[in-house]
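HUMAN: Mind sharing a backbone?

ASSISTANT:
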Amino acid sequence: MLLNTIDITHMLSLLSFNRDEPMLFTSGLFWILFLVFLPLYALIKSRRKQMMLFVIAFSLYFFYKSSGWFFLLLVATSFIDWWVGQFIDSSKNRTERRIALTVSMVLSLGVLLFFKYSNFFMINFESLIGGNFQPLDLIMPVGVSFYTFRTISYVVDIYKGKIQPVDDYIDYLFFLSYFPCLVAGPIVRARDFMPQLQQNKPATREMIYGGLFLVMLGILKKAVFADYIAQYNNIAFGNPTGYTGFELLMAVLGFTMQIYCDFSGYSDMAIGLGGIMGFNLGINFDYPYRSLNVTEFWHRWHISLSTWLRDYIYIPLGGNRKGKVRQHFNLMVTMLLGGLWHGAAWTFVVWGAGHGIALCIHKLCKPWLDKIPGNPVTRVVSWLMTFTFVVMLWIFFRANTFQAAGQVISGIFTDFEWAYLRVFIERRLTWCLMLAIIFGLHFVPRRVWDKLRDRFVAAPWVVKLLIFIVLIQLVLQFASATVQPFLYSRF
């Protein structure tokens, strides 16, 4: 009897929210639950209402395991904005529509600002008046930035007449709580997602196994490459004065590849899970480190965020319709807000400002740049300049303070010796090989990846199983001591 009680207590503890162990796609518990969820989902997929209620229940439990009782905040937000959307569409009074839109924006952004930026604003205020502020012990709901942006786009699109409101609240709750997009995007918009939900087409073989291919690729990127590379990066950035310039440069290059594998790996898993369930969630990364200029980089990096910033901040500010000076101002405001969105710290603001300045310079110089012949030499030079710029700005993104960022930059430029190359490779051979593989795969043409996916889809189940077993073995071989959270789950 006592043993049974202990087993039940342990099970309840495992299934309850644990602040120190939020459930993410890298959690073993998630995949156990998903394997139970998937066959039940397949059985009721054709019964739309039952399917939606089942997925909503799973999504809200997923959010509960990630953020505790804050899943109720998501439910409240979804109901308010669904009702606001209905009201905006039905009202003929322009003032009433504006008030409703304003209320929705204030509530959505108010929640985001409170949880994400309260301590940031208070600490900066206290530093101005010389106080001694103790940060509030706030638990930020996982993915609050992502679902806030999705609900804002929904209400704004209704206000502008780009979409019709969702008639059934359950449909909207399904959209906003959909678990593949909940923690770290992609920021899928209602106008792209709702038609798929309404049609409720069965998932094709290509979608299911293509989705599985993406999930496995995402696990490889995150659980093998990103987490392994992160171990050295964390040590070096944690004590930059204890490392030579060469070692610091390798840590910066390591973080450059780490953040790509971490976030694009998550996106691959989310998009793949969506495909397995019969939903197309789009593309969120398009080989960004191939870019030949900063503008192209932002067309390839975190596409769902960059297009959101363009459509809901840059264009409403006037875009490029009000002259060059105003265009550059709009770019700077957009990128500053984009930097601050990533984290409540001035280092993120500097990161965003750096990209904003680079975008302005590129726009300003574009008439002259377009006259330069597009031969291999100029393409290599353009790529090298862009890649170097992006890499150096990642220092501010990764460093916790300006002092740490300054120490990393100073070390690279004042204490750099190529003589450390051989020793570094000898001591960290696996790390270097992983870095080289990630960098090299970045330049594999998309058609090659498409062919690999198609061959995986067509392969017998035995081959798929063998590939999966190899992947699990790699994860176990290179796993760190603890499950590493996704970097973007903080945002």
Notes: The chain has a mean pLDDT of 88. The CA atoms of residues 166 and 172 lie 6 Å apart.
